[in-house]
Please model this.
Amino acid sequence: MLTRSALIYLSRQEGLKEFAARFKPFKKLTTRFIAGENIGEAVAAIRQVNARGCTASFDHLNESVTSIAETEAEVSEYLDVLARIDETGIESNVSIKLTQFGLEIDPELAYRNARRVVEDAARRGNFVRIDMEGSNVTQATIDVFRRLRAEFGLNDVGIVLQSYLYRTMDDARAVLQIPARIRICKGAYNEPPEVAYPDKKDVDHNYVRVMQLLLQSGVYHGIATHDPKMIDATIDFAQKEGIGKAAFEFQMLYGIRRDLQEQLAHDGYRMRVYVPYGKHWYPYFMRRLAERPANIWFVLKNLWK
Ligand SMILES: Cc1cc2nc3c(=O)[nH]c(=O)nc-3n(C[C@H](O)[C@H](O)[C@H](O)COP(=O)(O)OP(=O)(O)OC[C@H]3O[C@@H](n4cnc5c(N)ncnc54)[C@H](O)[C@@H]3O)c2cc1C
Model:
């Protein structure tokens, strides 16, 4: 637990972020989790993901952006990504973070930036997922999402909720009223016990409760996890309730439990792989190490190769 908190703490250090982006030798350590630095490399990775029977979601890595010019560059990047998806015919949607679009500068800016991406995706028949970040921006993220969802359709834009937050069951019920497509995940940030379950078993228990609520809603949701217990609970519940395999999708991260990804796709489940790419890989990479400290050994081994 201490290691997890320490790694997440390090993931938020601006100086280390800048250093990591510039220090080339670090880059080769990231290839297990990060698909590359540019769109071309991400497209190549997604072609392979598609060939394994899975769909994908592009994620251009960047977060907590502090300049308006940088948010503008992020919008351009995503407009390019949406165009490339159409040109190449790969099976992919996109995931965005609102702090990448300026949420911590001004929520209105983040809304306007995200709106441009959602509008373009809707025009192309594609879909934008708004990732969920730290609890300091949960409400602001939901507020921007609600505005976008009021303007665009169910299949144009969706949101993420995290089962470690106490508030998530209420949020899920409220957002389902709209209705909206939800990705449920456990949550990847350091959260205090005032807002989040400190014990993993409670996080897991809440995950199952929210998953069941989502599956019963009749809306197409994303069940994002690598945890075989969560996956079995989903499959069992769907079978018991007579919910078809095409009524929801499993989602996993690039480079994690590829065996399980392929198994689920082979068994006829819909499987989407979240494919991150870009220069600002450091915070994302550190959160992956935090989830499984054994990954540190994997990284250190590669360092000596
Ligand atoms: C598609 C997708 C999108 C996500 N989007 C968000 C988001 O928007 N906001 C957010 O806060 N979080 C997001 N997450 C991260 C999520 O919240 C968890 O931190 C992460 O998925 C680990 O939780 P788990 O459900 O896999 O279960 P855990 O209990 O953490 O792990 C279960 C098992 O999965 C494997 N595993 C898990 N993580 C790793 C890893 N890093 N390396 C190797 N093996 C691993 C291990 O075998 C582990 O025993 C997302 C996750 C996925 C899959």
Observations:
- The first strand starts at residue 55 and ends at 60.
- The beta strands are 55-60, 92-96, 128-130, 157-162, 182-185, 221-224, 248-253, 271-277.
- The mean pLDDT is 93.
- The radius of gyration is 18 Å.
